[in-house]
Amino acid sequence: MVIRILCLLCLLSVTSASQPASPVIKVFDEADQNSDEFLDHEEFQLALNVFDKNSDGKMTLAEFVEGWLTIDQFGSEEEAKSIFLKSDSNDDSLLTKDDLGPLFERFDTNEDEKISLNEFLTTFHQLAFP
């Protein structure tokens, strides 16, 4: 619980007015299937599936932006575009399983093969803002 409060305070200090903390934490919590306060590779994919509106395993920029904008005012269109473009590791204009490995590594800043809430919040912020 203390970790969540510290992470929330961290996010509140770095997030824009257009990106409230609660939707990001909600996505993390829903993906954390075993409630251990970390996301493994499989749970990380669940977090990203929130934006895969047609559940086909690949997201276009338009699909990602639509999902981003409809999730509890997650953030701005510019933030969504920034995140998508920085996450598309092979520049094929899609977010797919091929992008998950490099993206997981980007979120897993301490390289322990799991993503904490703090890593999740911090990396989302870094991806959203140039």
Question: Mind explaining what this structure looks like?
Answer:
It is a single chain. By secondary structure, the chain is mainly alpha-helical. Helix content is 59%, strand content 3%. It has 7 helices and 2 strands, in the order ααβααααβα. It has helices at residues 2-14, 21-31, 41-49, 61-70, 77-87, 97-107, 117-128, and strands spanning 38-39, 115-116. A two-stranded antiparallel ribbon has the order 1-2. The longest helix has 13 residues, at 2-14. The chain is globular, with a radius of gyration of 14 Å. Mean pLDDT is 82; it is low at 1-21.
- Write the element-wise H/E pattern from the N-terminal end onward: HHEHHHHEH
Quickly give the structural class: mainly alpha
Percent in helix? 55-70%
Widest sheet, order of strands: 1-2
Low-pLDDT stretches are 1-21
Query: Averaged pLDDT, please?
Result: 82
> How much of the residues is beta strand, in percent?
under 5%
Outline the biggest β-sheet.
Answer: 2 strands, antiparallel
Rg to the nearest angstrom? 14 Å
Global morphology: globular
